[in-house]
Amino acid sequence: MSESTSTQVIRRMAAPHRLPGALIGLLLVVACLAPLQLAPFHTFQLAMAMIYAVTLLGLNLLVGHTGQISLGHGAFFAVGAYTAAVAIERWDVPYLATVPLAAAVAFALGFALGIPALRLRGLYLALVTLAIAIFLVPLLKRFDGLTGGSMGLTVTKPVPPAWTGLAEDQWLYFLALATTVASFALVAGMLRSRVGRALHAVRDNEIAAEVLGVNLAHYKTLAFAWSALLAGVAGSVYTWVIAFVSPDSFALTLSVTLLAGLVVGGLGTTWGPLLGGLFVLFVPSFAQDVNQAAPGVIFGLLIIAVMYLAPTGLAGLAGRLAQRLGQLVRKGKSHAH
C-alpha cells in the first residue's frame, strides 16, 4: 500500500464519533456501580479492559491521529509495568508515586524512539518499532538482579483504605477507572487544542502541514512520547492489578494484539480504544475456549469477520447505527406531523 493510499485509509477511519454528554454521564454511573454488583473475577476483567483501553488510547494518538505506525507498543506498556514493579518491590516507592515515575520513563523512551523515527516512514518505521518489541523480552531476562529475570517480580497489591469499605478487587477497579477517565479527558482536551489540529494536519498531508507552519519533527516526536507515556501509565496500573510481571507477559504477540484491537475498536475514533480494550481482553479468552488447540486461528478469523462487517471498526459501526436510528426517528416524527 502506498503512503498516500494508507493516509487516505486512516483519514476515512478517523472520522470522529462523539457521544452526548448525558450518555457519557450515564456510562460513568454504570461504570461506578458495576463493581458493586459483579463477581470479583468479572470486576478484575473490567479493570484489565480499562488498562488496555488506556494503552490503546496512546497507540491511537500515534497511529489514528498522527498517521504513524507502531508494532512495538507492548514494549512501552512493559516499561511502565516493570518500572512500577521495581519501584514498589526494590525501592519501596508508594503505589501512586509509581504512576508519574512510569510515565516519565516511558515518555523518555518514546521521545528517544521518536527522534530516529523522523527519518522513517511506513514499513521502515514499523520494522524499527517491531525490533524494540522483539529485543525487550531477552533484555528483561538478562538483568535478573533488577527485573527478576525469567521468574519475574511479584508485587504486593495496594490495600484499600478502611474508610472506603471496598474489597481489594473493587478498589483496584476504581483505581483503573480513575486512570482511564483522566487519560481520556487529557487526550480529548489535547485533540481539541492546537496540538490536536497539528497532529491531524501531519496525518492528512505532511507537505501541506509543513507549508502551513507545522513543525513536523516536533509533533511527530511529541506523538511518540505521549503515546508511550499513556502506555507507561497503563503498565503501572497493570502491575497493581496483576501483582506480577514477567518478560513472557510482554512478548511480541502483545504488541500485535494491541494494534489489532485498536483497528477493530476504531482507528482514530474517540471510543475506539475503549472498545478495543474489551476486544483485547475478551476475544483471546473466547478463542481459547472455542478451540484450545488453535486459539490463534479463531482469533484471526474473528478479526477478519469484524473488519469485513465493520471496516471502520466497532466505533464506526456504532456511529453509523446511531445515525441510522436518528434518521428513522426523524422520519417517524415527520410522518406523524
TrEMBL record:
InterPro entries, per the entry: ABC_transp_permease, LivM-like
Keywords, sorted A to Z: Cell membrane, Membrane, Transmembrane, Transmembrane helix
Transmembrane regions listed in the UniProt entry: 21-38, 44-63, 70-88, 94-115, 122-140, 171-191, 222-246, 258-284, 296-318
Localization, UniProt: Cell membrane
Topology of this chain in the membrane: Multi-pass membrane protein
CDD domains referenced in this protein's UniProt entry, alphabetically: TM_PBP1_LivM_like
Keyword Repressor: no
Protein name: Branched-chain amino acid ABC transporter permease
Protein species of origin: Nocardia rhizosphaerae
Upper classification of the organism: Bacteria, Bacillati, Actinomycetota, Actinomycetes, Mycobacteriales
